[in-house]
Amino acid sequence: MRRGRRALLVTTAAYVVALAWSAAVLPERVPSHFDGSGRVDAWSSRGSLVLLWVVVGLVVVVGIPVLTRLALRGDGTWVNLPRATKDHWFAPSRRDEFRARFQDDMEGFVALTTVLLVVVMGLTTWVGAAGRDGVPWWVFAVVVGAYLVATALWVVRLLRAYAPPRDA
């Protein structure tokens, strides 16, 4: 099993566990939004928040890999790459390798995004279950900042991994 798929399965399991934990421990009135300083500024019911997390989880964990698979079908019409890169990877001799590698890379990115969702769900559940009024502003800044740095590194790695050879 490829690394991206394995990471996606592990993070999906963590998401399901976090979702079940949240549904079990959250009170009926739960925080649903935080302002820039980390204070709760909107509330909703436990049921509506858990339903939102189910939908977001399905869109991210199922939707993105399915869309990736659909976009990779055929001659690459739905894949947006620079012309030289696309010509290289969608040559008949490399197309299958590209599809497998890119699907795995996207599943790895979905796993990274799922980690972000688990952390945000955990913070929200912690605030709601503990009856707190929020979290320090820097907590969300660190979480989102780490996700953005990881995303930037992922993009750089992707650009290098799929760059066609210079002699191509």
Automatic annotation (TrEMBL):
Show the InterPro entries listed in the entry.
DUF1648
Q: Which key words tag this protein in UniProt?
A: Membrane, Transmembrane, Transmembrane helix
- Output the superkingdom of the source species: Bacteria
Which residue ranges does UniProt annotate as crossing the membrane?
A: 51-72, 109-129, 135-156
Q: What protein am I looking at?
A: DUF1648 domain-containing protein
Domain annotation DUF1648: ranges? 12-55
